[in-house]
Predict the structure.
Amino acid sequence: MTPPTPSTPSTNPKPSTPSTTPTPSTPHKRRNVSAQGGPVDGGPAQGGPVLDVDGLTVRFRMRGGREVAAVTDASFRLRPGECLALVGESGCGKSVLASALLGLLPGNARTAGRALLGDLDLLAADERTLARTVRGRRIGLVPQSPAGHLTPVRTVRSQLRETVRELTGARGSALDEAVPAAAERAAFPADHLDRHPHQLSGGLAQRAATALALVGDAPLLLADEPTTGLDRALVDRTADELRRHVDAGHALLMITHDLVAAERIADRVAVMYAGRIVELADAAAFFGAPGPRHPYARGLLDALPERSFTPIPGMPPELGALPDGCAFAARCARATDACATVPVFADGLACHHEEEPGA
Amino acid sequence: MLELHGITAGYDPRKPVVRDVSLTVHDGEAVGLLGPSGCGKSTLARVAALLHRPTAGTVVIDGEPARGWRHRAPRDQRTAFGVVFQQPRQSADPRLRLRDLIAEPLRATGRRAEATERVRALAPGVGLSEELLARRPHEVSDGQLQRACLARALVLRPRWLICDEMTAMLDASTTAALVGVVETYRRESGAGLLAVSHDPVLLERWCDRTVRWGDRGAALNDAAPAETATSPGSTAP
């Protein structure tokens, strides 16, 4: 999450877009937003969603006229103080969806649908708006692989300082004070601020990256595989820390294939398969009783070593060569002729053959 | 039988990350090595596969001490091991098609003639189609690439498999599938396994026994790496 635009540093970028979410005030005032504090986006929880995604579709045009259907018709809403986990196998389109929200898709991508952040449509916004008012300010990105995300030749303090300066306009002594405060919000120890990224453990690097993501007090946090490669204790700690920020009023979209981490912090779960959201469910019902309703979701959960440790047969289809009809049918034990048509997503499910509860 | 006796190893002689660790993998046995990030378990796995020279201790393969390390290890000892690493993107040569990636150990050991046939025999087991075999690493997903890396580790029919966080990057279904491939190979070949992971549930499900690493690893931020790595219960039952 490196927010500053390469624009002239003298211009103090101010959000130009009208928005329902008030922009952050100055840092020394915001330091008071604590773990038990109210919603950070200013609007109480009963307000509208932070993010309203409707029919989001991403296509990549490849050489030879081939087209890759990376994301198809994804719809979901995210409210303040809520965590939605987007789960699925690698290559199912999860990260493309995140890139689309941040306006970071490559040039050969075309999008359709809407993704409203307040009243700003992220898919229609121009790069200048995204760079100056959205990234870092209204969406904070907690990256995969923090060690690779931080600048290796600069200390954590120097990187935090730059981010605080660019996002809040703080200067001088206010800036000096704001840096440790920003570190503290992500539980990054102040005595490690003068270390370089390679001198940090995986867990501390994760916190440093999280601290950078929190500087702009963005109402929406986007975490892309925040726990990959961490050991279980660190996964739990990272998840709990993210949850703390959710409880402080941030909305969190967590993209992950780690079902155990998702179970730990998510309020709701969206299961993605071959570019489509096939199930959107309450986390407690999904991981507990009555369990997942989509055969794919059921298979994914059953593959966990905690459960039956049986893989789903076969592999997901190529996003560039999706079958007509339900993309999961070829791997599905319940498939019938009905699966030759794509099931409509309704009532949180896109399947012709819903699993029986507890089956 | 694969025996590690009193291994001390690391990257700085003054600060070994593995201290005096002993471990035995019996023929056909699956041993899990469990510990937090940075504790030295990957280093130990590399020593076991003759990929890292310890500063003290010996590796004994079927009663014979290792006669060399890394590229100086004699071929008969080196090829007794198949190794799968955590990050397929870093361990796979980006220029090779998957079929060549899998066959490379055969070429390297002068058995080029068997390559086509061995790849054809292995590919369905790891779930790779002809079409995927013709692709290069950047054209496949992490899961598909790790399948190829596993096939590569199996292509010389090793006596021991060393799986160092083989599934840490992968989703639940791919994890279960790859563990299934390893177990199928072990059943038909009688090979032993040393599986390194930080996931106790996975190791419990996969292995005959799990060796738990001592609590304090050598992570850079931990002040006291001195009491690194004693492995309680590391002697064979």
User: Anything to note?
Assistant: Chain A has a mean pLDDT of 86.
